[in-house]
Amino acid sequence: MPRLIRFDRIGGPDVLQWVEASLPAPATGEVQVRHLAVGVNFIDTYHRSGLYPVPLPSGLGQEAAGVVEAVGEGVTEFAPGDRVAYAGGPLGAYSEARNIAACELVKLPDALSFEQGAAVMMQGLTAQYLLRRTYRVQPGDTILIHAAAGGVGLIVCQWAKALGATVIGTVSSDEKAELARSHGCDHPIVTSREKVSVRVREITAGEGVPVVYDSIGKDTFMDSLACLRPLGMMVSFGNASGPVPAFEPALLAKMGSLFLTRPTLFHYTARRADLLAMADELFAMVAAGQVRISVNQRYPLKDAALAHAALEARRTTGSTVLIP
Length: 324
Fold this sequence. Notes:
The chain is α/β, with parallel strands linked by helices. The chain contains ten helices and 15 strands. The protein has two domains: 3-112 and 293-323, Medium-chain alcohol dehydrogenases, catalytic domain (Quinone Oxidoreductase, Chain A, domain 1, Alpha-Beta Complex); 124-265, 3-Layer(aba) Sandwich (Rossmann fold), CATH 3.40.50.
């Protein structure tokens, strides 16, 4: 029987359990995938901690890459032996094998390894919608990305640079500043000694930026708004430091008639045609060498708790994968 990570109560990394579970044949419309690499994302910690409640007991994880072992009735797009990857569907990617709806899968190009596939789907598709759909970055734009040395951050830095943008990024250390710089960040801001909005105004000669991409949440929200020029867009796409406190919408008017959006990947990929188009664009950027995928941490799947502890303690850079 395949083994997987499960949790039956919310809490810290210690609630994660390594268990065996039976795996039936794939049902109609499903594909059975043998995982060769599993992606770790901050949203996984939200599910585990209860910030994003899920019915318990539950599996965990929404991103992986592997090989098709069997297909259910009605599945024609995939066949046993196909290399596939996904970022979505019900929780359960932290497993050696699983059944998942065929509509969640994309074919993984031979040019990408399974580790790259597991590391790039959620973070890379997130970067795609941030830069190409939520606010479509144009040549000459100056943008701000928080957590520039993280998985999404490093991809956004490279992709935005390839689009002709100037990239400002926040990091927590000089080491992470150099990592971000090596991935296209023009102006790393070390938050332990610099106030972000002050530096952004200095860099932009007082103008501010047209867009801020903020996955930190509570700790950065107000200062992020202060970085925007009039009619700028605040893209709050995560809350690593906790949810943003309630505020009066009139604040957005006072600070320059600002726009605010709280997007999630799964609304952008809800239509299969959109998912395939986004994945094609992402894979093309990777294949062309314009986006390098940095898998900087690897853990055995059974040690998922260690991966979560490192992620929450900000001890990681780039992407983290679990190896079944």
